[in-house]
Amino acid sequence: MSVNDGKKRCSWCNLDNDLYVKYHDEEWGVINFDERYLFEMLVLESFQAGLSWETVLNKREAFRRAYDNFDIDKVVSYNDKKIEELENNQDIIRNKLKIKASINNGKVFKKIQNEFGSFHNYLMTFIPDEVIYENHKTSSPLSDDLSKDLKKRGMKFIGPTIIYSYLQAIGVINSHDDDCFMHNKNNGDNPIN
Questions:
Q1: Which tens digit of pLDDT belongs to each residue from 96-117?
Q2: Burial class (CB in 10 A: 0-12, 13-18, 19+), 193
Q3: 164 is catalytic
Q4: Is position 53 annotated as part of the catalytic site?
Q5: Which of 72, 75, 78, 162 is the most exposed place for a label (fewest CB within 10 A)?
Q6: What residues are paired with 174 via a beta bridge?
């Protein structure tokens, strides 16, 4: 079903995919520092490596079921049996290295939460006080620095491009096209907090 509501959206948004339009209109570029959401998007973005976001998004609900709704305490306790179950789950992306990385990254995420009080607090040591508005980039000094630190802490599949996409997903970077109705809609000039 194609969206025909007269709203101008980013050129990449597939109007024939309702999930994609909903994600574009309600999530992408909108500030969201909920800890579960921060973890979910980190896992999903790491699975995107080498694939399109639309592919990952189409499997999002299956990922939520497979990953216990991204309950980090459950994810970090996954054992070999659960890893095998994930590898055999045809509804998600069955990349063994990415699956193992997601569990590993969950453990690092928890360590960061324990060290800083929350993953959000950790992010705030890197991100500026206001939303960054920029288009047509795939990395930045911010994504380079954050990726480098996360790698140093032991995370995998989180290079500068993945982290840049992550920062867009959680609303730190607003890359909506200048003529997109979402460009200034939710963040405006509001500070990040």
A1: 999 999 999 999 999 999 999 9
A2: exposed
A3: no
A4: yes
A5: 78
A6: 133
